[in-house]
Amino acid sequence: MKFSLSVILTMLGGIGVSLWAYTPWWGFVPVAFLLALIIHQVPAKAFASGFLGMLLAWGGLSWWIDWQNTSLLSKQVAFLFPLQGSSAALILLTGILGGILGGVAALAGSYLRVIKSKSE
Amino acid sequence: MRILPFFCSAAITIGLVVVLDRPLGKVPPLGSFFSPQYGFWQNAEPVNQDFGGALSLQGLQGPVQVYFDDRLVPHVFADNDQDLYFVQGYLHARFRLFQIDLQTRAAAGRASELAGSKAINFDREQRRLGMVYAAENALKEIEANPQFRSLFDAYTAGVNSYIDQLTDAALPIEYKLLQCKPEKWSNLKTALLLKMMSKMLSAGTENDLANTNAKSVFMPDELQQLYPQVPDSLLPIVPKGTIFPKPAIIPIKPTDADSLYFNNKSTVTAQTLDRPDPGNGSNNWVVAGSKTQSGYPILANDPHLELSLPSIWFEIQLKTPTHNSYGVSLPGSPFVVIGFNDSIAWGVTNSQRDVKDYYEIKFKDETRSTYWFNGEWVPAKMRIEEIKIKDSLSVFDTVAYTVFGPVQFDNRFSNAAAADRNLAVRWAAHDPSNEGLTFYKLNKAHNYTEYEEAIQTFTCPGQNFIFASRAGDIAIWQQGRFPARWDGQGLYVMPGQDSSYLWQGYIPQQENPHAINPERGYLQSANQRAADGTYPYFIPGSYITARGVRIDNKLAAMSGITPQKMMELHADYFNITAEDIRPVLLANIDEGQLNVKEREFLEIFRNWDFLATPDSKGQTIFQSFWDTVQVSIWKDEISRTSPLATWPTEQTTIEWLLRDTVYRYADDINTPQVETLAMTVTTSFKKAASFLQLKEAEGKLTWSRFMNPSLYHLLKDALPAFARKGLSVGGYGNIVNAIKHSHGPSWRMIVHLVDGIEAYGVFPGGQSGNPGSRFYDNNLSVWEKGEYNRCWYMRENDRSSEQVKWVLQFNKS
User: Fold this and answer.
1) Which of A34, A72, A74 is the mutation pick for testing B, counting most B CBs within 10 A?
2) Less packed terminus of chain B by CB within 10 Å, N or C?
3) Contacts of A112 in chain B (CB under 8 A)
4) Where is B452: in which H helix or E strand?
């Protein structure tokens, strides 16, 4: 329950931040960090939910954009990386990048939460 | 103890953000680049993008409507000229920002700001050629007229109003990849863009340095043979038989010309790094009502330039209550450059005239601050050029400016290891001029008189302006400010120590080659020499003869002409050069020396129909064979100097081979034996055949596989993913359908001057410079198939037409 909630909120937070023009590209990082503070999970689960949430956010957003664009650009940009022109790989890579950052941010948040609760 | 994991994970998080926020060598910051909010995903334009809307912008005087059709061609309806060009600037920025930025930075010798230190020599060369100097001089001329200046100001304001509202997320993808930002536009940049065209079309139409080296090894009679001024088979732009008036200027050859100039045997080691493509040329022609089915004239033009993505052209319609023109514009400049309005049509080809000469300067000392001129030491104007380099310290270059122009090559900038001669460049593009005014006036011209008046302000590069009017007139003028030369002046580096070798004047406007309403009912230009030997001026240039002959022959034979027949001529793959030379080549092959495979190639060549179609093997065989023959004949001779002397033109070689089969140049001077033509031709064929065999094994024997017609993105090899390769087209530079590897008809236009104007146009590419847009290359397949788009020439009552896909309303804020 907590896990799913965490994933969904991370995902929504990631999407929300991306659609709001005034944050830098890493604006979702503090959001993932804060969510892990609020929703207490063991560090491994925190990382997993942060990773998954952001994978869905960035992966989802890029998939949506790519769909509207009928993959015109992604096929070309995929050749700039060793991805053999695969749009799917590019979307996955986008999701993974967001996911890793979301994961470590949530991880840090969960450790801080642990410290706080220990010190209470 | 939990503190440690927290700090580690926090440090990793922050560390990752920092790393992904920085460029890693050439790779852009991956964090922002992959971000769906900021990165390349933002450039993935939805295929159902709505280009309409309403904008309130400062700088407009009133409302402007832009109607986009389904090819994203904007039809701009404004109430006055300033608003018209303001919106044109906005649209050029909206769709081609990176292009106009990159092109003007390159023109100004600022490529190093984007590309780093590998572009330093390129940039130094642009500064030393005086590109910015030329643009500054043009700008003074443009800004001298307040009314005209306001048009440039409006264009600049329009470009900037787009740039000003650009967010990081909306930056074109190239900026994200290169990690830089666009610069604000200025009138100087527009002037630079126009000078970029001058450079493309007139910085490579002379061979002074290579010719000087040729002069050092060949005798005067040999020079005449190798580099004749007037080819035998020339079909000039001005119909043969035209009587030319007596020349108003008769330039006087300096008394010491024979010793100091013609018989001077010293060489030059300087070479230009970045020479414009010698194929930068074009075709245009016009047929009068007497030859058309409708009785109205038809005009056709296809400029041959580098085929890039995005295209050098941007299709547009510009309309106010007083004028309404349609055609292609050059992003970076206002106006329609090639096109038509409701009364006339016009087009351009390159004149190929030599308007750039080199003068040898004698400096007093290492500082180069004084030089010897007319019997005394005079000060040079020293101009310090700062070349900024991406991620590095600036490099400085001091260029000496003399009475002739900038000293392009000296001890600080030369390609030889040893110090070489100091060469100043005198280039017509440096002179104050206002080419933009010509296009502005042509956009508004109604008839022949206004066209003739409009072209007078066009000084450089020389262009053949072709013309047709609804009233029935057809005309062509070779327009430019051309120096009046004494015979031989400007072929070689000239002494620069006194004024006797300066240009003594310009050919008066009325004496520029031209023709109006000839009886034969057609006119054409295809980069050939404008007139035959009866023209009373010396007019050296880098002419191409073959296409003009073919076009002239075809037009002469046609009657009842329709636009469709003109399209067929644009698509003509006939290789007239091959037709001329094949008999000689076949007659000189010793078949006894050929093996089975070679005979096979020979049979194909023998039976070939001279058409350079995409699937032709005969064209591939011919071209490889003929190139090898030419190299075999000339390489030994022109290698007698280093750098090489000028290659004789293909036309010259053909004409000699046709008239003299005991051709002494067939001999390879580096071998003890004396080769005959037959020996050289046979050896060349065998050599070509072995090369062709390899190609055949790779599946590249057919012409389009061999030539691999491709369009490259502006950043070329840096972004191969944005290129389009392997097009199924044929042709060659000396064929009417002049497609080479990545060069050729950048715009094909046919204008039939009937009521309402029936016009067709196509360019390989699309209106948008964004590789993520469906309008990046949507016209490519049309062009590839030899087809055309119908130009929608909108009128007032077309505003509510179904053909309007999007409306962009501009209001003054």
Assistant:
1) A72
2) N
3) 6, 10
4) helix B448-454
